[in-house]
Amino acid sequence: xxxxxxxxxxxxxxxxxxxxxxxxxxxxxxxxxxxxxxxxxxxxxxxxxxxxxxxxxxxxxxxxxxxxxxxxxxxxxxxxxxxxxxxxxxxxxxxxxxxxxxxxxxxxxxxxxxxxxxxxxxxxxxxxxxxxxxxxxxxxxxxxxxxxxxxxxxxxxxxxxxxxxxxxxxxxxxxxxxxxxxxxxxxxxxxxxxxxxxxxxxxxxxxxxxxxxxxxxxxxxxxxxxxxxxxxxxxxxxxxxxxxxxxxxxxxxxxxxxxxxxxxxxxxxxxxxxxxxxxxxxxxxxxxxxxxxxxx
Length: 296
Known about the structure:
Elements: E1 2-7, E2 14-21, H1 41-48, E3 57-59, E4 63-64, E5 72-77, E6 80-87, E7 110-113, E8 122-127, E9 130-138, E10 149-158, E11 162-170, E12 175-186, E13 189-199, E14 204-217, H2 218-223, E15 231-239, E16 243-251, E17 259-268, E18 276-277, E19 281-282, E20 292-293
């Protein structure tokens, strides 16, 4: 069990900001549903409800939030709980959005999104470093029903070293932007980066150019008793005036999960000028200035 905190005005006291549980099922269990490290995803959902799917938040698919325990972050590996982190609960502020833009249901291959105005929604699919965006339209032929669907590819984007892609709601007009997180590895440096796209009827605009979020060096990770390849980040994004990015840092020496800590958030501003493309785009990270360090 790991407990993290922040210093208060007193030099002799601090405030606990998170508690992380790793290891075996005997270490800790939830009061409701007897959920513990090692529980299956099905058991987790049965005990604590469907996972939270807030349109103004996007998460690494390996990081989930139980619906009945919103201040918990659960790491999933091989369909099982590998760690549970309970953070200091903060009041949630509802995001005021524009006109309602519901997302279509996700499928096994794609994530539902509302990227284009006046559309029936889109599906975001990933194939390694390639992102395919498909529009969804109701089938209207004879004998067809509203539940029958057809799709058309409207964009193909390539993001080298892609970690995950997700929609994130922009409160300005209530539509989603497409967010892609990537990671590049050098012998002495590991860098996580972001790029974000906005879709309009005739063009795709980068609202965030490829930008580094966090960097970890081999020297930094040795201070916490780990080698660089043993450290991973699980990122969570929230949409505000800009995009706030935070999440969890883990260490896994000798292949076994040891540490899980909450990292300090960084805020990335959206750009409002034009940077449009109407054809498939390479969106690889193209620089490292102004990157944050992944400080717990």
